Every structure is written in structure tokens, then in C-alpha cells.
Amino acid sequence: MSKRKLSTLFLGVSLASTGFAATEIEWWHAMGGANGEKVNDIAAVFNESQDAYDVKPVYKGNYTETMTSAIAAFRAKQQPAIVQVFEVGTASMMAAKGAIYPVHQLMSDSDQPFDESTYLSAVTGYYTSNEGKMLSMPFNSSTPVLYYNKNLFKKAGITQVPKTWQEVESAAKKLQMSDVSCGFTTAWQSWVQLENFSSRHNVPFASLDNGFGGLKTELSFNGPLQVAHIKKMGEWQKNGVFSYSGRTNDGAAKFYSQECAMFTESSAGYAGIKRSAKFDFGVAELPYWAGKVKEPFNTIIGGASLWVLQGHSKEEYKGVASFLSFLSRADVQADWHQFSGYLPITHAAYDLTKNQGYYEANIGTETGVIQMTTGTPTANTKGLRLGNFVQIRGAIDEALESVLSGDVDAQTALDTAVKRGNTLLRKFERTND
Amino acid sequence: MTVTFPQKGLPWLLLLPQLLVTAIFFLWPAGQALEQAFYQEDAFGLSREFVGFENFVYLFTDPLYYQSILTTLVFSFSVAIAGMSIALLLAVMADRVIRGKLTYQTLLIWPYAVAPALAGVLWWILFDPSMGPIALWLESAGVDWNHYLNGNQAMILVIIASTWKQISYNFLFFLAGLQAVPRSLIEAASIDGASPFKRFWTIVFPLLSPTTFFLLVVNLVYAFFETFGVIDATTKGGPGQSTNTLVYKVFEDGFIGLDLGGSAAQSVVLMGIVGLMTVIQFRFIERKVQYS
User: Fold this and answer.
1) Measuring CA to CA, how many Å separate B36 from each of A433, B56, B246?
2) Chain A within 8 Å of B57 (Cβ-Cβ)?
């Protein structure tokens, strides 16, 4: 063939093939294990349902690693379109006005229908600006619950599921008499035993409505009730009622191996526990101290939301908006909720799950939803909005560890954490005002 | 003995690749770190504010920074001294062995090939309070081992993991150094009635001093910088601040805490500390080294 005809042929083929390429959308997430496979399934279903967009989920490690990678990528102009950021990164993301593309704006720019009232307010409140506009899309919200080993309970003669910390303590003592060395362990100790503890008892974690009121917030989790609880945890570490397992969720191993009979962990641990626990387990609400609060208040959410980052084409953003709509569909949310133990984020998904009879067939899976929607939220129970919170949690973890190892008393430890945390808050205020 | 080149440009041309590598991978990042230490920047790099020496002032008024310096000194000197002593002992023993010499040498060198992070995880598992063989043996001997809570035990763990790797490297150099000691000297000493112990300390060890000095410098630099992998894969600076060495703190404050200005200031100070240490070593300790 002559040179001219050959080059025309190549030109024609390459032009034709671009028409078939779907717009690729990268989604960085921190869902490993069973939940990670589910994320890939969800993306695959979306991709197959249309051929204009191709969502590519990329597992980036744990929440901290995912957020750090996304920020580093943004600085190198290699950021993904969607990134899953955990709830403690919310303040940092909200402050990065030039980097994020607020979800409410994305949806309206892309002409996607978007009604904020269809979402559960306990969830969206966390991710909404002070003007009531949703900045990120809630995807996986969880709340801490109490998992317990039914077999070990039966062996120890425990007939009532513990509701208060007093009952947890007496259950642990009974378990120790039947040769179970550890009563309970916890995951995410700062989140469960301090942040959610404060919310459950309606005591403030930080001033200015736990930080919702502005950047001048100051920490206040060294109040008498929190100090008393942490002091108790130090005693329990010594006498075996409690066994420390690290700052994240390594405690699961102790629960699976039946070394510990109870486990305070995220409702989203459900999928992993169902897979790995070779015994009968139950799900109960997060305990509270009887006598310190008349009725326990709602717990706050953990988990993460999806943030959209600037710097991509309009075509890509159309795809992102379409994908976010897909994720909020009642059937997709209901399926994700039932599989993972993360809470349903829309009323429709919650209703659909109820109508399917899922909660009756799977006792304990509704616990998290009920616990999170208990009563009316107060200023202390809407959640937290604190800058540099990753580092603040590090300071809190160190303080808690120093109490558990018996080196420092609870009041001093929490006071130290408050002091270090406030310095970090002032730094955040300085760089983001 | 100096080498002379006929063309004037040739030496520069031959040096160019190395100079480029040094410029791109050391001078440029170091320069950026130095610049960034004088600014406060938000995580996303959208805005930065010149703050002069504020980052440094904050560092030197932070008790945790001094704690980190102390932690690093304890860690580094422990790793260097333990690594060198054990390696020297093994080298002396391997030198005297006649049968199976090659086998011992090969096996003793293998740990060097293990990546730092893997070495850390290996020892982490061996010492795991719930199921690690060594931890269980310690429990049976009455020692309550829990490096998740006990800072001193966590430090011991990372020292062991870091030292284990470095013993191979030190062993290689000590063995070569020992084999360079003239046999005639040792024979003369033994004829004069010197015990093996005396022979070692008065003849062999002084002749090993160039090797020992070199290894001290290398081991300290290793402990200051290359142990990052061990700590990141295991304790991550915890529990509390017990294993938060200077190099780990740079990473943690910069990439986890997203405080880039503070982290840059720390890396500048760290560079200064190691540079100073090396200068001190060359000025004072090298005097005692006996080159042949």
C-alpha cells in the first residue's frame, strides 16, 4: 500500500477507536478485605450499566494512608477524581477550598437530581457546611457497637446482654471465673472510648459545639466523666477485664481467637466478624454508665465520605456525578449496608432493608442504626469537626496508652492530650483562616 | 600517587554522572527542605506563609523534640555498639574455624539481604505477646512481655530488629580486617607468652581500628536514617513516644500530621546533627586510629 494510504488508514482507525474509550474515573479508597471486594463489585455493576464512564477503584491502604496519598497526589497534580476520606479528615478537607469540588455544587453543575433530605440527618450533618450545603457524599458511615461471644457467655452463665459498663465489668468477672482471660477489648480506642463515650453521655468533647461553631474551638475531653472512665479502663487493664490491642482494629484477632469475649468495634466490623468468627456472636448497643445519664444519647458516626477533587475535565465530573447518584440508589445502599455493616445513609435504603425483612433474619444488624438515630441530637452528639485531628488522635492515643500501662494517672494524661491538641488546633486555625 | 589527565575537561566529564546524582537526589531536595522550613503551608499546598525561624523556635521549645533526640541517641548507640560487638565476636570465632568456614560466613551474611521492614515484622511476630514463640518463652520465664504497652520493651524490640540486620555487614568488614592482620605479629606475641586475650586486645584490636572507626560511622548513620523501615513496619513510633526517633518524627509530622514546615525544619536539624556527629568522629576519634 502506498505511504499516504497507510497513514490515512492509521489515522482513521485511531480516530474511530477514541469514540469507544469510556472516560476513566479514578476512585481512591481504603476498603480492604471483604469490603474492598464489594467496592469492586459496585464499581463493576456501574460500569456495566453504561458505557460512557469507567470507574476504577484503587485500594490505597488504610484511611490515613489514603488521605495522605491523595494530598501528596494533589500537590503533584496527579490526584484522583474521587477519594474516600475518613470522618476525622473532614475539617482538613473542608478547609481546602481550592482543592475540593463540593458535592452539592457538582451535582447541580452536572444537572443531576440531588435532594439532601433523602439522607439520614445524623449522617449528613457531619459533612454539611454551616450553610447547610453538603460538601462530601456520605458513603460508609458506622457507629461503635458491642460484639459479644454467645458461646462463652453461655459457658460463664451470663444470661443478660450487658447494657451498662457496670454490667460489662460483672460479665467480665464471671467470664474470668470460667477461664476466659480477657473480658473485652476495643478497636479505635480514641473513637470508641473517648469521642463516642462523650457523645453517649452528652458531655462535650470540644467547645463551640465540638468544633462545628468555628476554628477557635478548644478541646474539653478532660472532664470528670471522661477522666473517671479512662481511670476505670486503666484498672481494668490491670485486672483483665480489659485487654489493650493497639490503636486501630487489631483487637479483632483477640475476639476471633476467643481470647476476649467482648469487642467494642465499629458496626462495619460485621462483615469481617461474620467471616472469621467460628462461634455464635451477638451485637448490642455501646454500653454507658448507669446513673451518669438517664437515657444514653446517640453515638456519632465514623467511617468515611467521598470527596471530589478539582483538576479534572467537565466530562469526568459528569461521570462522577452520575456515579454518586448510582451509589445513593436505595438498592445499592441497602446491599452495601447489609453486606458490610455500614449504616444505610438514605431513608429509602433503611426502609427497603426493613421491608426485605433483613433485620428480622439477621438479629443485631439494626443495632447501629437504632443507636445512631436515638432521641434528638444535641450540640454534643452531632459529631466532631476538628482540624489536624489525625495528629490530635495520636496525642489522645498516647495519653490513653500511658494510663493503660500504669505510667500516668488519667487526669494528667488527658490534660496533656488536651494541651497538645489545642496547640494543633491553633496551628490549623493559623494556616486556614 | 596522583593521576594526571592530558585533557583538562576529561576529569570533569568522568565525574559528571556522580555530580548530577548528588545534585538531583541530595542538593535539590535538601535545598527545598531548607526553604520549606521557613514557611507554614497548608496540607494541599494551596497557600504558604513566610514565618522566619518560627518552625525552629517551636521545635526547640517542644519537650517532645528533646525526648525524640534522647530516644534517637539511645537507639543509635545501642544499635551501633551491639551490632559491632556481636559482629566482632562472630568474626573472631569465624576466623578461627577451619572446617565449614564458608558455610558460617554465608549464613551470617544472609540477614543483610532482608529488607528492613521485613526484618522488623519478623521480630515483631516472634515477640508477639499472644502467640510469638519468644514472648511465650519469656512469659514462662516470668517476664511479662507486651511491647504494645511497654515503651522500653518496644525499644528493645526495634533495637534487636535493626541490629540483627547490621551484624552481617559489620561481620564482613571485621572478618576482612582480621584476615589482614599479619600472622607473624601474633606468632611473635604468643612466643613471648601473651595469652589469646592479651594478644587480641594489644595487637589485633588496635590493628582493626581503621575498620572499627569506619563501621562506627556507618552504623551510626544507619541507625539514624535507615532504620525508618523497621520502625514504620512495627511500632510506628509508639507506644507513646518511646520509639519515635528523629527520622520517624520527620515522616510522622510531615506526612501523617501534614505539618510540612515543621517537618522540614526537623529534617534540617537532623541533617545538622548527623553532620556534626560525623565531624566530631573524624576530628577526635580518628586520631586514635592507627593506619599502617
Assistant:
1) 20, 12, 18
2) no
Are B176 and B208 in contact, with CB atoms under 8 Å apart? no
Residues of B in contact with A253 (CB under 8 A): 130
ipTM of the prediction: 0.73
Domain count of the fold of chain B: 1
Which chain B residue has the Cα nearest residue A407?
Answer: B150
A243 and A114, same domain (yes or no) = no
Single pTM value for the model: 0.80
Task: State whether A68 and A171 are in the same domain.
Answer: no
Q: To the nearest whole angstrom, how far is the Cα of A54 from the nearest Cα of chain B?
A: 27
Cβ neighbourhood burial of B145 (10 Å; 0-12, 13-18, 19+)? buried
Grid coordinates standing for A195? 469521642
What pLDDT is stored for residue A78 in this prediction? 93
Q: How confident is the model at residue B25 (pLDDT cuts 50, 70, 90)?
A: very high
CATH number at residue B185: 1.10.3720.10
In chain A, what residues touch B45 (CB-CB under 8 Å)? 74-75
Of residues A98, A397, A405, nearest to B150 (C-beta):
A405
Closest Cβ–Cβ partner in A68, A96, A259 for B130: A259
Full domain range(s) for residue A346: 3-142+301-355
Residue A38 predicted with pLDDT over 70: yes
CATH number at residue A225: 3.40.190.10
Same-domain status, A21 and A63: yes
A117 and A138: one domain? yes
Picking from B58, B139, B149 by the largest number of A CB atoms within 10 A of its own CB, the best residue to mutate is B149
